[in-house]
Amino acid sequence: MAPFEPKETIFRNESVLQGHYVPDELVGREEELEKYHKALQPVMNGSNPNNILLLGKSGVGKTVATKTKLRELEKSYHQYYDDHFSTLFVNCEDYSSSYQVMIRFVNMLRDDDDQISTTGHPSNKVKQLLRDEINKQGGVFLFVLDEINHLSDDSILYEISRAKADESITDARIGLIGISNALDYRETLSGKVKSSLNERRLRFPAYTADDLRAVLQDRVENGLQDGVIDDGVIALCAAHGAADGGDARNAIDLLYHAAQIAQNHDDLKITTGHVDRARDKMQENEIVEGIQDLSEHERIVLYALATFEAQDKTPVRNSELYERYLNLAPSDREPRSSRRVRDFVSVLEDLSLVKIHSYNGGRGQGRWATVSLDKPLQYVVQGLSPLIEDIGLHTSIRTVWESKLSPQP
DNA sequence: ATTCCACAGGAATGAACGGAAC
DNA sequence: GTTCCGTTCATTCCTGTGGAAT
Question: Nearest protein residue to B8's C1' (by CA)?
């Protein structure tokens, strides 16, 4: 093997193209940032912060806008005031109930050697602990709940908005910032939260292809060497991003993967061909990794559906799917009820692995749903391969299975 | 306008589990 | 040890529903 030596790289600063990077300036969101700025202004005036709800699909800059704006705010605040200021950022994908989020907040406000456990407490006690920590430190607290639509209950919203009004918080000013991918999030809230929240709403529209071109151009200038990118690459990534719902994260990711592929092949220029390959590879990874996170029975349901797909018998009715699921599930795995399997199918739909269609035959027929695979069969079979090796190969997918083992060039 | 169908999906309930509190 | 607490995953029961047929 050749010795290690420095290699020519097309990257200037690779991290600029990676997912966790927070740019100093958000391109193409001037109007939204202006509104955000105004909504945060009361903090600087010494009054109670507004509650703020940010709405917009994924990858439209809500989280990045929040991080940059709050960074700015904190800096300015300390120029004029010397009391406590903290922003507590929690992603509700990791902490999915109000209870867990509150415990997380308590622990963020406490020292490392004074943490409380994440289970076992009565919820009233957790509320009290949080109030105690807030009162102890005083000053300004901004609670940021990212992906707030993943929260299974909204009691924490009620707690925070009520704490602002009543006497339980004495020496502190608190505000709530919720970030939601679901545009109708407000409608899912309970009545008492809706009326007590009294929030400012900021809508972040999807990026257009033009916006995305500007975003990508900015990242390319900072992240890549001069002249390593072919004509049309940015436009192609922007077009894919716009078609995928105006998601800048996806567009940047696509460009980054294309750059990595070029780099790995010692190509000195990123071409649209690299973008195409990156897109295929990303789709494959997304499916295979998505399947890895499924529970065993969810995977058996998906397997059952894959066999129908291989036989060209999709869309298939839930009842038929359930029967095959029962046949495929090994007897020692205790098959679930049909009601439960309908829930599994709906999980698979949320992950965009399957599509559900509703039909109605009217009098004498009733109504029913059918399911079909929403991703290429070969990738799904690949993702399912550990399960298939475990519970056995269904004859319907033998061809797909064998071509997986000896892939055609 | 009413009837009728199959079943999607909501609601209630319970068991199992990890951890706190006594 | 026992009791309490919140969460997850499961079951059972059953109501609501869209639209063709009447």
Answer: A368
User: Helix or strand or coil: residue A246?
Assistant: coil
A47 touches strand C (CB under 7 A): no
State the DSSP code for A206.
P
Distance CA A151 to C1' B9 in A: 21
The 10s digit of each residue's pLDDT in A238-258 is 999 999 889 999 999 999 999
Q: CA of A120 and C1' of B21: distance in angstroms?
A: 9
Model confidence at A349, pLDDT cuts 50, 70, 90, reads very high
Report the nucleotide nearest the CA of residue A343, measured to C1'.
Answer: B9
Rounded CA-CA distance A353/A345 in Å is 9
Nucleotides of C under 7 A from a protein CB: 4-14, 17-22
d(CA A54, CA A137) in angstroms, rounded, equals 28
Q: pLDDT tens-digit profile of A131-149? A: 999 998 899 999 999 999 9
Amino acid making up residue A152: S
> Closest protein residue to B18 using CA and C1' atoms?
A119
CA closest to C1' of B19 belongs to: A120
Report percent pLDDT > 70 for chain A: 99
Residues A389-402: tens digit of each pLDDT: 999 999 999 988 88
Residue A7 CB closer than 7 angstroms to strand C?
Answer: no
- Could you give the CA distance from residue A250 to residue A255 in angstroms, rounded to a whole number? 9
Q: Sort strands A52-55 and A172-180 into parallel, antiparallel or unpaired.
A: parallel
Footprint of strand B on the protein (CB under 7 A): A 117, 119-121, 125, 317-319, 339, 342, 346, 356, 358, 362-369
Range list of H helices, A265-376 = 272-292, 296-310, 318-328, 338-350
Contacts of A363 (CB under 8 A, 6+ apart): none
| pLDDT single digits (tens) A178-198 | 999 888 888 888 888 888 888
pLDDT for A409 equals: 44
> Quick one: pLDDT at residue A407?
56
